[in-house]
Amino acid sequence: MPAVRALPADLVKPEAVMEVAVDVARDIAGRRHPARPYRVRTDVDVAQVPLFGEDAASS
User: Fold this and answer.
1) Residue 3: how many CA atoms within 13 Å on its side-chain side?
2) Has residue 1 got a pLDDT over 80?
3) Distance from C-alpha of 31 to C-alpha of 43, rounded to nearest angstrom
4) pTM here?
5) From the centroid of its chain, how far is CA 34?
6) Helix or strand or coil: residue 56?
7) Fewest CB atoms within 10 A around its CB: which of 2, 26, 32, 38?
8) CA–CA–CA angle 47, 51, 26 (5° rounding)
9) What are the tens digits of pLDDT across the range 24-42?
10) Do residues 35 and 21 make contact, with C-beta atoms less than 8 angstroms apart?
11) Burial classification of residue 54, based on how many CB atoms lie within 10 Å of its CB (0-12 exposed, 13-18 middle, 19 or more buried)
12) Which own/partner contact pairs does 29-38 have at CB distance under 8 Å and 24+ positions apart?
């Protein structure tokens, strides 16, 4: 099994809600499929979505 390492991330102030399509499939080299944009959610306000790392139940 490959070693797990932390990847760098730049957190930004959210200004829009975007729905994405993701799956757990991997390609022949073992890489995960990338997330694909699906649609902008104009019916959901940014304040309704928990920030990365927050518990959805506590928002």
Assistant:
1) 3
2) no
3) 33
4) 0.54
5) 10
6) helix
7) 2
8) 125
9) 888 888 888 888 999 999 9
10) yes
11) exposed
12) none
9-43 burial string, b = 16+ CB within 10 Å, else e?
eeeeeeeebeeeeeeeeeeeeeeeeeeeeeeeeee
The residue written with tokens 């757990």 in the block is 24
Reading phi first (left if > 0) and then psi (alpha if -120 to 50, else beta), residue 56 is in: alpha
Task: State how far the Cα of 30 lies from the Cα of 33, in Å rounded to an integer.
Answer: 9
Specify the 3-state DSSP secondary structure of 36. strand
Report, as an integer, the average pLDDT of 4-31: 87
State the Cα–Cα distance between residues 46 and 13, nearest whole angstrom.
10
Give the tokens for residue 59.
Answer: 């928002």
